[in-house]
Amino acid sequence: MQGQFLRIANPGIADPTALTILGVGNTREAHVAGTIGMFASGSKLAAGLLLRNNLSPTIVMGNLRMTYGIEPITSGGQGFRQVMVKYGGTDINGKSKSSTEKLGYTLEWGTADWNDLTMAPREYVANAIDGTLLQGLSLDQVEIGLVDNIRAKAGWTQVYIPTFTMEDGKNEDIHRFFQELNLRFLHFGHADLLKRKLLPKLVPNESKTRIYKHGVLVAVLDYPSVWDYNLGDELSLDESRNASEWTVKHAISKALAHADAGALALVIKMTATADNKAELVETTLTADYLKDRYDTATVDARRAQWQQAFKSVAGENGVASSGLTGVDSHLENKGMKPFQVPANWLSVLEEMQVPTENQVLKDSHNAGENFTEPSADMVKVLDETWALLESFEMTRGKEKPPVKGFVQLMVGGSQKLGEYRKIDGVGTVLIHNDIGATSTMLRTTMLEELVHHITGAGDMSRDLQDFLFRLVVVMAF
Questions:
Q1: Shortest CA distance to 199 belongs to which of 226, 166, 236, 222?
Q2: What are 22-35's pLDDT values in tens digits?
Q3: Chain centre to alpha carbon of residue 277
Q4: How far is residue 57's CA from residue 184's CA, in Å, rounded to a whole number?
Q5: Residue 384 belongs to a domain
Q6: Phi/psi at 220 (5° precision)
Q7: pLDDT of 43-64, one tens digit each?
Q8: Does residue 171 share a domain with residue 68?
Q9: Are 51 and 168 within one domain?
Q10: What is this structure's pTM?
Q11: How far is CA 91 from CA 7, 101, 236, 240, in A?
Q12: What is the pairing mode between strands 156-162 and 58-61?
């Protein structure tokens, strides 16, 4: 039996004002885990979407029936279709109600965003889930099915969406929605996954990525991924319960940043197996989001998970590598096993203190680096630059560090000119011996490394930028 209506029902009686007045809703301020309602406009927009497609929904709340329709109106010489509701039966207080109410919106509202017919039944199913959770009831009590008749049910809210129209016959979108219900909502076919953020691919070998929020499908990305994702409140939705690709990727990054070693290992393995050629959602994520630097409370635990994940995939001597031939051969000559990953993941792995080419090659012995006594020009420029910083009270109470020269061959097409790090436990400014005497490059490099010494900040950090901005200001004014 195909059924004349798609019936969506849950225990409890909805307030009619939440279905007719914009902004009225119970979910947003309740803060109940697992609910998704936010804007208190979805049920109104859903009714308009159905009406634009010649489907007139009926909502039955206990013994009160609301049937939606339209009435043509004119404003400024332009025609519109105003939404109206016809009531019949008795309300929650047993009072008879038989009237027609014109609502404060038209079918023209929502045409830009609410343009996929399946968004309407999705809205009503999400409302049924929210309504059930708000009452502390089990989601097993939500009922969804195809029926032939509209009937009242005491103590229940029921939405009836026609599956046929007089003009076009069977509506394929509504039937397709019902057939795909278990993929659109984890609650009805994959309830065991509701607590997980990283999901096994729900459609094997699908070259798309399914994105859920609290179990409700809110986006499908048109390229493959290692995981499908079920995100929480970190994912923001627009008023049509959809999420942009940017907000999805930001939330995915946060989920991966806090994932366990097993889940991370699969991502690292898959991105490496693809030789960085096949685009996966995970290979397009922004490194800064994956690092989640603002969550300092969990950084040690997260680093432990990332380190365990990488070791399980790359082995005991594995080193995360960019894949540059010269770098990989150098690592191999030192008994290391290069493990190629995308550039964004290389940056994140370094942040998580996983062995990477940059860290390994930084070691003076592995990189063929030799220290020398500083030249007279290095000492002169160190003294002059430090005196400048002292004159503007910008040393923050730090002592002037020593300086050394170093010799290092180019690595991977890149030549390091300077660095600040500890040598035998002492913070030291290192200057490459090839930098010309008293040249602008020598002064620039010296200043940069002294700022690292004073601030303790890394390259490209906001702390480093702020210090230099302040220095310019105090020098100028």
A1: 226
A2: 777 766 555 677 77
A3: 23
A4: 21
A5: yes
A6: -135, 115
A7: 999 999 999 999 999 999 999 9
A8: yes
A9: yes
A10: 0.72
A11: 20, 15, 36, 30
A12: antiparallel
